Amino acid sequence: MPCPYAERKGTLVVCKVRGTPVNPLAYPCLGEKYPNCPIYARAAKEAPAAEAREAKQIATAGEAAAMPAPVSRRGLLGLTQSGDKPSECGQCVFYSKTRRWCFILGATVGNPATPPCG
User: Which domain holds residue 10?
Assistant: First the structure.
């Protein structure tokens, strides 16, 4: 049974790991002792790690695609209970009257009669 990384091309034996022809007398590519080959041993050892890295990249890409696009705080507008744009901060659900704080902008509001969000 030959090495899974060995490929015959005419009279040559090409190692898929190295991408170059190898001497099958120096390396046991075509025999049953190919697991003793240092090239095969290194590739077999690195293959699970490479597959794990690839799986992680695919999972990360899938998570990134599932996440909503980030929204700028400045792009948000205040909302009243009915979903309308408030005419003053006191009507907005994102405004704390006791702290005079806008949770959208993350800042203190100087004049609640004129909303800084527009």
Answer: 6-66
